[in-house]
UniProtKB/TrEMBL annotation:
Residues 10-101 form the Chorismate mutase domain. Gene3D superfamilies: Chorismate mutase. This is Chorismate mutase. Catalyzes the Claisen rearrangement of chorismate to prephenate. Keywords: Isomerase, Signal. Pathway: Metabolic intermediate biosynthesis; prephenate biosynthesis; prephenate from chorismate: step 1/1. Residues 1-22 form the signal peptide. It is an enzyme of class 5 (isomerase). GO terms for molecular function: chorismate mutase activity. The gene is pheA2.
Length: 180
């Protein structure tokens, strides 16, 4: 009788484990957060277009870069590589914004309205924190980013080019923990 129970429990375990979705790979989690962050660029571009603001805001970029590098350092990430990674994210974000604005010259979206910039920047800040934490956790757990195909597949934003994705991947590959 105990063999019958054991077989039943084993069968049930296999059935339940097969029905649960697999946890996302480390690189996919980071890519998902980056993708979500880049998803706000239409709102940023729209707000800036409506308010006649340039896409490039060097003072805001410096603020984001300085804050991100400081946080990365607190999380144990090497500053120089993180600076390049953060810059790659900002450059991809600007490229998306420029492409939206170019698209709107010939095909405006009059029914669409962007979210307020201060709300979007709050979301971007939160996502940035999560991205840095996920990278730090992955590296501290010895889980390097090795799934380039999954990473690239996860980044799916209109106006994000393959070369933007590649630059993000390359920059992520160079991120390391601080040397003790």
């Amino acid at each position: 009788m105990s063999n019958l129970i054991a077989v039943g429990l084993l069968s049930a375990g296999l059935l339940f484990s097969a029905s649960l979705p697999a946890a996302p790979a480390v690189g996919e989690e980071v890519a998902s957060l980056i993708n979500k962050r880049l998803g706000y660029m239409k709102d940023v571009a729209g707000y800036k277009a409506i308010n006649h603001l340039p896409v490039e805001d060097l003072a805001q970029e410096r603020k984001v870069l300085d804050s991100s590098v400081a946080q990365a350092k607190e999380l144990g990430l090497a500053s120089e590589a993180m600076q390049a990674f953060i810059q790659a994210q900002m450059d991809a974000a600007k490229a998306i914004q420029y492409r939206y604005r170019a698209d709107w010259l010939s095909a405006p979206e009059p029914e669409w309205q962007p979210q307020p910039l201060d709300r979007v920047r709050g979301e971007l800040g939160s996502l940035n924190d999560l991205i840095l934490q996920a990278i730090s956790t992955a590296l501290k757990e010895g889980a390097p980013f090795t799934e380039q195909t999954a990473f690239m597949r996860t980044l799916q934003q209109r106006n994000l080019s393959d070369s933007d994705k590649q630059r993000l991947w390359d920059a992520l590959q160079r991120v390391t923990l601080q040397k003790q």
